[in-house]
Specification:
Four copies of one chain form a homotetramer.
Chain A (H helix, E strand, L loop, with lengths): L9 H19 L2 H13 L3 E5 L1 H16 L4 E3 L13 E6 L5 H12 L3 E6 L5 H4 L3 E4 L8 H4 L4 H22 L3 H5 L7
Parallel strand pairs in A: 1-2, 1-3, 3-4, 4-5
Helix pairs in contact in A: 1-7, 2-7, 3-7
Chain lengths: ~190, ~190, ~190, ~190
Amino acid sequence: MTPDAVEPSPFVRAQRYIADRVTEALDRLDPAAITTAVDLLARAPATFVYGAGRSGIIGRAFATRLVQIGLTAYVIGESVTPIVHRGDAVFILSGRGESQSSIQTANIVRREGAELIVLTGRATSKLAHISTVLLPLQFSEDPDRPRLAPLGTLFESASLRLTDAVVAELLRARGETEESMRRRHAIIV
Amino acid sequence: MTPDAVEPSPFVRAQRYIADRVTEALDRLDPAAITTAVDLLARAPATFVYGAGRSGIIGRAFATRLVQIGLTAYVIGESVTPIVHRGDAVFILSGRGESQSSIQTANIVRREGAELIVLTGRATSKLAHISTVLLPLQFSEDPDRPRLAPLGTLFESASLRLTDAVVAELLRARGETEESMRRRHAIIV
Amino acid sequence: MTPDAVEPSPFVRAQRYIADRVTEALDRLDPAAITTAVDLLARAPATFVYGAGRSGIIGRAFATRLVQIGLTAYVIGESVTPIVHRGDAVFILSGRGESQSSIQTANIVRREGAELIVLTGRATSKLAHISTVLLPLQFSEDPDRPRLAPLGTLFESASLRLTDAVVAELLRARGETEESMRRRHAIIV
Amino acid sequence: MTPDAVEPSPFVRAQRYIADRVTEALDRLDPAAITTAVDLLARAPATFVYGAGRSGIIGRAFATRLVQIGLTAYVIGESVTPIVHRGDAVFILSGRGESQSSIQTANIVRREGAELIVLTGRATSKLAHISTVLLPLQFSEDPDRPRLAPLGTLFESASLRLTDAVVAELLRARGETEESMRRRHAIIV
């Protein structure tokens, strides 16, 4: 399926490398953890998404979908985000589980009695330890990775695919369809 | 109260110039329009704020306060903004009433049956004409203005003071206090 | 590799469905168009990224990487974005090629003499027609798609993988490494 | 100048209260501190603005103006913000000088050798102590303040007026005009 038999370009190699590493990481996830996370998200009065840098960007894309499904969702750091209440779900994306703001956010929301779903590349981080539901993404390291998927690329790419697949679960759990989502599509000018 | 009798610095001149021009513009506002706008905002199931560029930035600051007062507010363009429903209030800030996105947003929300509050520096713009409530800000032009308050400075500054004063009205109308607002202060890490 | 032989969950089906459809779409891309786009991005004095909604979110993730590679990049709509000059590259992501703001942005930047790279799911849109370089993503439609990848999910997922693979090309073209990118990692608190 | 002799509305009282308290606070500022801050901003290779919540919103409005003046400016937390270098200016707005993210940002930038301008309502905070240039805003407290200007209203309003007045200084220092600024006005769609 490659255009020719010669060495594929960095573009071709990178896009396949990312796809394969992400698929491996998602296949390793415990299905029970996904089910627990989906249940929490489907029932939470509100979900608050947080991530620093590119992880936060992927989190925003997820929050948009939650709203289109008819759930109440906020991004911590945006203008209109209210306070977290007991029973709300907080979904933190953090590749290395190290950013101070993620840890501080996690501590605050646990103290408030909210449920904490942590999506992270490091299952042993402090952030992982204080989670209610842990979604750990493990990527095997190899010499090609730094050139084909530098920094948090694999984590961020896996986070988008994972959250999009959670959306498919939520559609079923909530009896929603693409059509009902489309009717909740915000004004985009 | 000036530091000395010599020519005041651009800093001193600008801050006073802005304060005085903004006070004049706010004093010229029809109190009945403010009352109508406050009533709409106090009763709307949700308020959607929109502005392009620096006007949108001031709009975000207003939306944050609406949420702290216990109202439901969104910024059009942020990730979690749902659709506008009949009866919702839409608050558009537009200095010249000309940005395509503001006009398009206004047309969409009027078609949906939402109430449209327009805060603008041009009472004769197309945007002003389709508003439910018009809050026109008029600034007298003079030769100092371009150096002391270039581009939309006066409009943006007046918009912040106006919306902050609307917050004082909403506090009374909703029986809220600084203390109740503080308890709704979002996590800021 | 599925956890059991029974019907896989929506989560498992969706994540694989998305991966496969995205791989197909990226395999169909003309390698020459990717090469042209990479050349433009590697040489442009500045690159401006634009997208509405979730497309814009993916665009932000790409802009962050361009900056880490040592290129100058901006997101149209953020606070510090300067004007576009002749020779700059503008990268617009638009699933359906229909948003007014994307078309208006495209018209403005072409008038200024900037190069326009359009990543879109509709190669026949007006937006596609005014591009300098067109990167069309084609997804075959089937009855599972609405439940497994509703709305623009495939386009957005393909956009993230495509732009991440462009980053791998730019790393080589510019002689950059993960280490040099890490040293340009912004303060994230 | 009030429309009638009866008790003025909360709107009228609030807008005047804010204007007067802000004027007092700005008049108390040491002109030498403003001059030092303006000099730093006029010469810095790049300026990085940071603030949490509404303070950050006002910071974004300032960053937009710096770019229009022809300076290089970034908002810490936006997608395209590069790293801070020795000699760059960092401008932090923090009403109470207490947010962890502001303090952490300040510590990082001082370690990198950047100049730190702190605009704050608390001259005795830890943040104030590590600044290169301190711009302290002092507001006298009184019983009307909580209803007319709750939470950080006075600080934020003073921050906008102060930064707009700094823009007037920078216009002169850099030989810029409203017309040259207008030519740098970003695409706003």
